């Protein structure tokens, strides 16, 4: 992966080691534009990103989100190129159309799903896996559940 992608990933991992959602503010604000944490219209414009992440966390403190983000970033990534844009997305298996082949893969997959997302599947009938996307230039674009 490019050095800029590794740098923001390391900054996120550093924040996760603090086990405090507020520590994520540093990598969140590292971008000129904040990453997206929810699809358009889910929260009022200007809502603090830490408050969005807390609201998405089952425990309302953000510990679920921290755990999921750690799990996601411990997985392999996939490189996605769309026109002039190249993204690196974790976990790679979120893009895979096949079901997990082993028990280990199944557990890894479920470790990247929010409790709130257990009630519904994506359009393919699979779990709604959280994913993070970082562009080749090191800009953190998103962290959310798949559709």
Structure in words:
The chain is α+β, with helices and mostly antiparallel strands and 147 residues long. Helices cover 33% and strands 16% of the residues. It has a 4-stranded antiparallel β-sheet, covered by helices on one side. The model has no long low-confidence stretch (mean pLDDT 86).
How much helical structure, as a percent, in the residues?
25-40%
| Percent of residues in beta strands | 15-25%
Total number of domains? 1
- For the secondary structure, the number of strands is 4
- The end-to-end distance, rounded to whole angstroms, is 26 Å
Quick structural overview:
The chain contains five helices and four strands.
Key attributes of the depicted protein:
147 residues, globular, alpha+beta, 4 strands, single chain, four-stranded antiparallel sheet
Explain the layout of strands and helices.
Elements: H1 3-17, H2 25-30, H3 49-56, H4 63-73, E1 78-82, E2 85-90, H5 103-110, E3 130-135, E4 140-145
Antiparallel strand pairs: 1-2, 2-3, 3-4
